[in-house]
From TrEMBL:
Annotated Pfam families: DUF58
Residue stretches making up the DUF58 domain: 204-374
Transmembrane intervals: 39-56
Family matches, as PANTHER family: BLL2464 PROTEIN, SLR2013 PROTEIN
Protein name as it appears in the record: Uncharacterized conserved protein, DUF58 family, contains vWF domain
InterPro entries membership: DUF58 (IPR002881), vWFA_dom_sf (IPR036465)
Keywords from the UniProt entry: Membrane, Transmembrane, Transmembrane helix
Superkingdom of the source species: Bacteria
Length: 449
């Protein structure tokens, strides 16, 4: 059984066998072909034994494969994986490689074909995009090796069983971190914010640059500055406000379970919270997390100690969906009990109607009195695509009329919240991260946090 188990028949063998059968059938009509058919059949049997001998003459160690994948995968991103192949046969091998990927991907097309010369190595690269956080179990890497004859296949299995965790989008976080460090955040849609105000903490006197506030010109220092080419204006530079608490409040209720491009709104909120927390730490602020649904889940106090980003990543990774109605009264009570200092609260939720917002408005107003509250909710992208299409019949006119009503209610929610001094972001899911970072930088530039 050990010998038969890796033994497979290639498609070419069946085609050649079919051709020989047709040759024997033809020989009944033309007996002169019968001897030729017998010779061809004997040669065919000999080639089968020769092919088997080439493939199985060495028990092991003649072919090697290894799957190379990261320790963890990034949710919602294309994660690079590769398969390393090494041919130790003395002939040019044709290989079929089938990778047993986790069932969560629902893909059965991870099949690669390659040709390797003797002693040659090759790397096959592909990408996977997970859409759920959690543990993903990879199976074996199956390799089917054929000789140049291509009649038989020898089956090898490598990398038996490996489990990888899928975390919130740390690839997106690293992208924003790198762009922020090189002042290229505008490449992902983050606008440059001109600082309107400043704190009263003096930092230094420096030369004037275009865009600086003229009210900060230090005339005494300017008069002492002599330059053969003319007078150089000097200004007082002030430090930005630092170490401000920034909390991401993530709604895990049923309103956040709507799907978009494979991910739920909850996962979009988690990915955006991870990026924003990292940007806040880079801006010398303190970042914290609070999750809630029918009751408050996990609270991670706002800090900026070494390793705090890893704590945020672990907290976001463990969040699970609850399909119950969100309890904003419990949220307010816990925020009041656990967040004593005035903070920026970024509330990731979703309101579909004005009446749904009105039910929670008393608690939102109380939060806005004690903290700077920013509510982030989502546009219905399917509804937007419907409204952008012209109506061609009566049914579509009715559908567009209903769609316009829901779209108007979203805009009405923004206006009503603004009346109570509550900041809002109404965004499509794919633009959530960039719009959230933009708003955070805007509030910081305006000196509101």
């Amino acid at each position: 059984m050990k010998f038969i188990r890796p033994f497979f028949v290639a498609t070419r063998l069946w085609l050649v066998l079919l051709a020989i059968v047709l040759l024997f059938v033809t020989a009944y009509a033309f007996p002169i072909l019968f001897a030729l058919a017998q010779v061809v059949f004997l040669i065919f049997i000999f080639l089968i034994f020769l092919d088997a001998w080439l493939l199985f003459r060495v028990k092991s160690g003649v072919f090697f494969a290894r799957r190379e994948l990261p320790d963890r995968l990034s949710n919602g991103d294309e994660n690079p994986l590769s398969i390393y192949l090494e041919n130790q046969y003395t002939f040019r091998a044709t290989v079929d490689v089938i990778d047993e990927i986790p069932f969560q991907f629902q893909r059965r097309n991870i099949l690669f074909q390659a040709r390797l010369n003797p002693r040659e190595t090759q790397v096959l690269r592909y990408e996977l995009r997970p859409t759920r956080r959690g543990e993903y179990s990879f199976g074996a890497v199956n390799v089917f090796v054929m000789t140049p004859l291509g009649l038989l296949k020898r089956h090898y299995q490598f990398e038996q069983g490996k489990t990888v965790a899928v975390y919130p989008s740390f690839l997106q976080m690293r992208q924003y971190e790198l762009l922020a460090a090189t002042n290229r955040l505008n490449e992902v849609g983050v606008k440059r914010m001109r600082r309107i105000g400043h704190s009263m903490e003096f930092e230094q006197v420096r030369p004037y640059s275009t865009g600086d506030d003229a009210r900060t010109i230090n005339w005494k220092a300017t008069s002492r500055r002599t330059d053969p080419r003319g007078t150089t204006l000097m200004i007082n530079a002030y430090q930005d406000e630092r170490s401000q608490p920034v909390y991401c409040l993530i709604d895990k209720g049923r309103v956040m379970q709507s799907p978009f491009n494979g991910l739920t709104l909850l996962d979009y909120a988690i990915n955006a919270s991870l990026v924003l927390s990292n940007i806040a730490l880079m801006k010398q602020d303190r970042a914290g997390i609070l999750t809630f649904s029918d009751h408050v889940g996990q609270i991670l106090p706002a800090e900026r100690r070494s390793g705090h980003m890893l704590k945020i990543l672990e907290v976001l990774y463990r969040q699970k969906t609850r399909f119950l109605e969100t309890d904003y009264e419990s949220l307010y009570a816990n925020v009041r009990a656990n967040i004593r200092q005035r903070s920026l609260l970024l509330l990731f939720t979703n309101f579909e109607t004005v009446s749904a917002m009105h039910r929670q408005l008393p608690y939102l107003r109380r939060l806005a009195k004690e903290h700077l509250l920013l509510i982030i909710f989502f546009e219905n992208t399917e509804l937007r695509s419907l409204l952008d299409q012209p109506a061609t019949d009566t049914e579509q006119i009715y559908l567009k009329t209903i769609g316009e009503k829901f779209s108007f209610e979203k805009k009405q929610i923004v206006k009503e919240l603004a009346q109570y001094g509550i900041q809002t972001i109404l965004t499509a899911p794919q633009n959530l991260t960039a719009n959230t970072v933009n708003k955070y930088l805007e509030l910081k530039a305006r000196g509101m946090i």
